[in-house]
Write a structure and sequence with these properties.
The chain has 2 domains: 258 residues, Zn peptidases (Aminopeptidase, 3-Layer(aba) Sandwich), CATH 3.40.630.10; 120 residues, Alpha-Beta Plaits (2-Layer Sandwich), CATH 3.30.70.360. 35% of the residues lie in helices and 26% in strands. The chain has 10 helices and 19 strands. Strand 1 and strand 2 form a beta hairpin.
Length: 383
C-alpha cells in the first residue's frame, strides 16, 4: 500500500471511531478508543506513542518520530474529539464520492490528524536531527483540556514551533479570533399579572440590554478591523426568564458572546458591556442588572516573518503549484494556547465543509497535499 492510499485508509479508520466529546453530549464515547487506536497504529509504524490523561477518561496520544539529536523539534497538533451527531444518517460510515470523504469528523478534524500521523511516519525514514511530534488531543470542541495538558508537560517533548492542522482551505492562517462569554442578569419584582403597580418586568428590562447590544455590535463592525480577520462582534446567544404567563418575572438571564480580534482583551469586552448596563441604569431608575464573565479565549496572531511562517509559505506554494495565500480564520483554535506557551504557531489544513453540520466532508487531494507540506516543512525545520 503506498502512503497516499494509506493516508486515505487511516482517515477512514479514524472516522469509523465514535469520538463525540462527552462534555458536549453527556454519555458520549469520548476520545479513549481513538487515542488507543492511534497509539497502536504508531507503534506498528515504528513510532513512539504516549497516552496522556487530560482529564479522567479523556485521553491524548502523543506520537513522536525521534530525530538523531541536535535539531529543532516540530509539533503537529490536531484534535480527535468531535461534536454530536444530530441529523446525521450514518456518521461513522466513511464513504468516498468524487474525491471527497464523508463522515463525522472528516473535516473537523480527523483529516488533519491523519496527515500529521503520516508525516511522522515519513519523518522516521528521513534522517532528521530534530523530532516530529504529533499531539492528537482531546476536548478541543469544549475547553481544550487536551492541548492544555500537552503544553503543561512541554518539557517532555520540547517543541520549538507548531502547526495546528485545523481545516483552513489550504490557506496559511497566521491569526484567528478569540472569544469571551458573559452572563447578563436583569432583576425585576415578582407580582401577579393583575397587579402591575407591584411588579417590575425583568424581561422587559432585558429588552433595553438587547437594543444596546445591537448598537454595540454595529459600532464594533464599523470600527477598526484586523487585516485578516475583520472587526470584532457581539451577539445574544441564549435568553431565559419568567415562570408562567400570569406573573411578572423577577429575573431574566442572557448569555452573550463577544468575538475578539488581536488587540481586544476580555477586560475590554467586559468594560464595553458594563458601560452598556450603566447607560441603561442612568436612563431608568428601576433598571438593575449584573454582569458575570465566563470562559474566555484570547485571539491569536503570529508575525508573518517568523521562520515557521516562511517555511510553510514556501512549501505550500511548491506543493500546490501556486502562490501561497496567507490569511486568518474566524474560529478559535488551539493555536492560541500554543502561541501563549511561547511556540511560534501557524494553522494549515485541508479543504472541505460541514463542520458541526449534518453533512461533513473533506477533499482528499488537499489532505494529501497537507501531508506533503508538513513533511517538507519538517525536513527544513528539523534539520
Amino acid at each position: 500500500m503506498n502512503d497516499l492510499t494509506e493516508l486515505t485508509a487511516l482517515l477512514a479508520d479514524l472516522v469509523r471511531i465514535d469520538s463525540v466529546n462527552p462534555s458536549l453530549i453527556p454519555g458520549a464515547r469520548g476520545e479513549a478508543e481513538i487515542a488507543r487506536f492511534i497509539a497502536e497504529w504508531a507503534t506498528r509504524a515504528g513510532l513512539e506513542a504516549t497516552l496522556q490523561e487530560a482529564a479522567p477518561g479523556r485521553l491524548n496520544v502523543i506520537v513522536v518520530a525521534r530525530g538523531s539529536g541536535g535539531g529543532s523539534n516540530l509539533m503537529l497538533n490536531g484534535h480527535i474529539d468531535t461534536v454530536g451527531l444530530a441529523g446525521m444518517a450514518d456518521p461513522f460510515n466513511p464513504r468516498i464520492e468524487d474525491g471527497r470523504l464523508y463522515g463525522r469528523g472528516a473535516y473537523d478534524m480527523k483529516a488533519g490528524v491523519a496527515a500529521c500521523l503520516v508525516t511522522a511516519q515519513r519523518a522516521r525514514s528521513l534522517g532528521l536531527a530534530g523530532d516530529v511530534i504529533v499531539a492528537a488531543v482531546a476536548d478541543e470542541e469544549d475547553a481544550s483540556l487536551g492541548t492544555q495538558a500537552v503544553l503543561a508537560e512541554m518539557h517532555r517533548w520540547r517543541p520549538d514551533a507548531a502547526i495546528v492542522a485545523e481545516p483552513t482551505e489550504m490557506v496559511l492562517a497566521v491569526s484567528h479570533k478569540g472569544f469571551a462569554w458573559f452572563d447578563i442578569e436583569t432583576f425585576g419584582v415578582a407580582a401577579h399579572g393583575s397587579r402591575p403597580h407591584l411588579g417590575v418586568d425583568a424581561i422587559v428590562k432585558m429588552g433595553k440590554v438587547l437594543l444596546g447590544l445591537e448598537q454595540l455590535d454595529l459600532a464594533l463592525r464599523a470600527g477598526p478591523a484586523h487585516r485578516h480577520l475583520g472587526a470584532g462582534s457581539v451577539h445574544a446567544s441564549i435568553i431565559q426568564g419568567g415562570q408562567e404567563p400570569s406573573s411578572y418575572p423577577a429575573r431574566c438571564k442572557l448569555q452573550v458572546e463577544r468575538r475578539t480580534i488581536p488587540g481586544e482583551s476580555p477586560e475590554l469586552a467586559e468594560a464595553q458591556l458594563q458601560a452598556l448596563l450603566d447607560r441603561c441604569a442612568e436612563a431608568d431608575g428601576t433598571f438593575k442588572a449584573a454582569l458575570t464573565r465566563g470562559l474566555t479565549r484570547e485571539p491569536f496572531e503570529v508575525p508573518e516573518d517568523a521562520p515557521i511562517v516562511r517555511l510553510c509559505r514556501e512549501h505550500l506554494a511548491r506543493v500546490t503549484g501556486r502562490a501561497a495565500e496567507v490569511g486568518g480564520v474566524s474560529y478559535w483554535a488551539d493555536a492560541a494556547l500554543c502561541a501563549a506557551a511561547g511556540l511560534p504557531t501557524v494553522l494549515l489544513g485541508p479543504t472541505g465543509a460541514g463542520a458541526h453540520g449534518k453533512e461533513e466532508w473533506i477533499d482528499l487531494a488537499t489532505v494529501h497535499q497537507c501531508a506533503d507540506v508538513y513533511t517538507a516543512v519538517a525536513q527544513s525545520f528539523c534539520g
